[in-house]
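Assess this today:

___
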Amino acid sequence: MGLTDEKNFNNDYDFAIIGSDEIFNCIGNGNIGFTQQLFGKDVSNYTITYAASCGHTTYDQIRKYHLEEKVKEGLECLKNISVRDKNTYHFVEKILNNDDKIVENLDPVFIYDFRKYMPKIQINETKYIIIYSYDYRLCKENEVKYIKEFASKNGLKTIGLGLYQPWCDKNINVTPFELLEYFKHADYVITDTFHGAVFSIKYNKKFVGISRSSNANKFNDLLSRFGLEERNIKEMDTLKKIIKEDIDYQPINEYIKVETNKSKQYIKTELEKAELLVNRSE
């Protein structure tokens, strides 16, 4: 195949942002595996992360597979490290043995205003619950039973968006921005994904989440940050009560505004530092 040990990529960049989401998730992460580049090695002259997450990878797993030194070597190449959850914060802190350059930021979906990209489409559905999950994951008999009972009792249609849910009343294949438009107009959301909860919070929806072992670290951390731990249902028979409870979104929206300014300032400051470095070298 003509493969050699010689690098065949260009990393002579002035500035790079690695992120966001599970860029540090390198243990048991399907076919992605481990690469030092995702931890910051050989990326650019000035590299930072934004809202990085380890997903379900933990510090103990890194030690178990003898990757601690390689991860440390990568992280030490980063000028600043932005994370999105406590598991990742402690992961980086333990490996570097300090927290001097670790900051916490929200997922960029919270930070950006997508309105100018959202299509002016007519949502023909009324009174609907969004079911947002990976294919066939939110399909346990007990889960489906309680969701269908709630939908039927309240005259709601169950709609799966983007990913196929065979038991839903309807599945709709949507573009990313159409998906946001459907979230914006939904009556309720039921999700077992991190971003399903993010979209629900961003658009101030009544929702419940079901934490899975694969996303528990960042999913539970997200709900905790917004004081919404009770939306993570442990028993499906509590769904009908919890999902209808009102959420006071005023303090949540104010918190998002503060974090938006914090994130913009973080990136602006790091860009300015990178520019100074470039000017000095010229």
